[in-house]
């Protein structure tokens, strides 16, 4: 059942198209009919009935057998089918108020009668796979779960135009205060429509544009403060800036560079230049989610001490859809109060807990060369190194890293560093050879 739940969640995640409320009439495709329902903020589960017993299972393999709602489901299903497999949202009912996934998590162990299951799909019925249109599916679920108190189908309003959808959105979300709506179109996509979410995050690094945007900011690396001098990576914000802002921001942040023992790669496969975590920006996004098709999302936590970042290990975190820069928040500080993780946990429940870490393989050095040169009684050092991360399978690390260190005691900026990354061993070896040829001339001796 776990494998079926995992497959269904992957399919569901790929099928839902997120849009914001004011895009209903422009982003939703025309169709003859739409089914509009309130979006429940809970946990996706599959409900299975074998003719005698009813069980809930999620994609992580968690099985629930003793919730009061299961007795309700069994009574409703007996005599109506031999067996059935349904998909729905397990959530905490709050008398018409907005549902929150973390509310349901908090009371799950209490076996509360307020934990309800809103059914929205049939996967199997009497041993056969099921494929129904939106109207037929609604009628089938309504007939099966008629009279259900804790298990029932989502309520659909069937409309024929995008203006009708906008009216439903206004009633359910803007006036009713719910998280959003789900729109299923006849023979078309399914949409998740929600208001824009805004977040305040700490700027941890930046990358510079290239080509026509050389000399401009490409994107910021941002995170949330989880404790004093500790930050959890969140996303990269590359949209929303004017060209003038990109020039101004790059010039400003070039003077805030700091060292880092951790490497994060930008969208152009170049390592971010890390900066002191003392500025906050505000950005918008279409959605926030804590799990994807691979499971619980985890990201790196960083510690900033003595002017340098170091990796603390991965922790459960969220990802966002379509982040867009709004403005710098000079009125806010890089603290848990102004730019903390609670902004996320108010929206979704993160998988696991803060103490969980994802075990990563150790890196291995492939090539290393150190050269020294004396000038005016002072020693200069140039160090070249390539390593394989052995973490590329996570999708969050490059396969290979080249690192160059140039130290000169007579120079104003005594220590310089350069990082290049690649997913190709051949390319990183070529980079290593080229850098040696360009930076090791007459007078340098290999150590």
What class, by secondary structure content? Answer: alpha+beta
What name is given to the CATH topology of the largest domain? Answer: D-amino Acid Aminotransferase, Chain A, domain 1
Please state the overall shape, judged from the principal axes of the Cα atoms.
Answer: elongated
Beta strands, count: 30
Helix content: 10-25%
Describe the structure.
With 447 residues, this protein is α+β, with helices and mostly antiparallel strands. The chain folds into three domains: 2-194, DNA ligase/mRNA capping enzyme (D-amino Acid Aminotransferase, Chain A, domain 1), CATH 3.30.470.30; 197-345, Nucleic acid-binding proteins (OB fold (Dihydrolipoamide Acetyltransferase, E2P), Beta Barrel), CATH 2.40.50.140; 364-446, no CATH class. It contains ten helices and 30 strands. The strands form six sheets. Strands 13, 14, 15, 16, 17, 18, 22, 23 and 25 form a nine-stranded mixed β-sheet that branches. Strands 3, 4, 5, 6, 7, 8 and 9 form a seven-stranded mixed β-sheet that branches. A hairpin with a 2-residue loop joins β7 (115-125) and β8. Mean pLDDT is 89; it is low at 353-358.
């Amino acid at each position: 059942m776990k494998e079926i739940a995992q497959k269904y969640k992957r399919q569901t995640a790929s099928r839902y198209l997120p849009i914001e409320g004011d895009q209903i009439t422009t982003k939703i495709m025309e169709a003859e009919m739409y089914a509009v329902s309130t979006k429940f903020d809970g946990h996706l589960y599959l409900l299975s009935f074998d003719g005698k017993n009813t069980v809930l299972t999620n994609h992580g393999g968690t099985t629930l057998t003793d919730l009061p709602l299961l007795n309700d489901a069994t009574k409703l299903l007996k005599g109506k089918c031999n067996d059935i497999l349904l998909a729905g949202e397990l959530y905490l009912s709050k008398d018409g108020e907005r549902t929150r996934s973390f509310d349901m998590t908090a009371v799950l162990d209490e076996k509360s009668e307020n934990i309800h299951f809103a059914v929205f799909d049939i996967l199997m019925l009497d041993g056969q796979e099921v494929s129904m249109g939106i109207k037929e599916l609604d009628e089938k679920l309504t007939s099966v779960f008629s009279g259900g108190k804790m298990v029932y189908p989502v309520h659909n309003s069937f409309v024929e135009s995008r203006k009708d959808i906008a009216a439903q959105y206004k009633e359910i979300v803007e006036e009713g205060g719910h998280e959003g709506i789900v729109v299923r179109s006849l023979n078309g996509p399914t949409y998740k429509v929600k208001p824009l979410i805004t977040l305040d995050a700490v700027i941890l690094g930046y990358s510079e544009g290239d080509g026509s945007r050389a000399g401009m900011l490409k994107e910021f690396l941002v995170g949330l403060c989880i404790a004093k001098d500790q930050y959890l990576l969140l996303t990269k914000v590359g949209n929303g800036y004017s060209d003038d802002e990109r020039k101004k921001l790059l010039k400003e942040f070039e003077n805030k560079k700091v060292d880092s023992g951790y490497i994060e790669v930008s969208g152009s496969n170049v390592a971010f230049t890390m900066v002191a975590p003392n500025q906050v920006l505000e950005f918008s996004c279409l959605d926030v989610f804590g799990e994807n098709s691979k499971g619980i999302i985890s990201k790196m936590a960083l510690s900033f001490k003595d002017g340098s970042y170091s990796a603390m290990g991965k922790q459960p975190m969220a990802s966002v859809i379509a982040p867009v820069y709004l403005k710098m928040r000079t009125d806010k500080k890089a603290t848990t109060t102004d730019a903390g993780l609670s902004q996320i946990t108010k929206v979704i429940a993160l998988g696991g807990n803060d103490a969980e870490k994802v075990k990563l393989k150790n890196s291995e050095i492939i090539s290393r060369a150190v050269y020294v040169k004396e000038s005016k009684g002072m020693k200069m050092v140039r160090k070249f190194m390539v390593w394989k991360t052995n973490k590329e399978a996570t999708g969050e690390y490059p396969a290979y890293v080249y690192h160059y260190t140039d130290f000169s005691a007579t120079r104003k900026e005594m220590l310089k560093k350069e990082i290049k990354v690649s997913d190709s061993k051949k390319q990183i070896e070529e980079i290593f050879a080229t850098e040696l040829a360009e930076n090791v001339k007459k007078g340098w001796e290999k150590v």
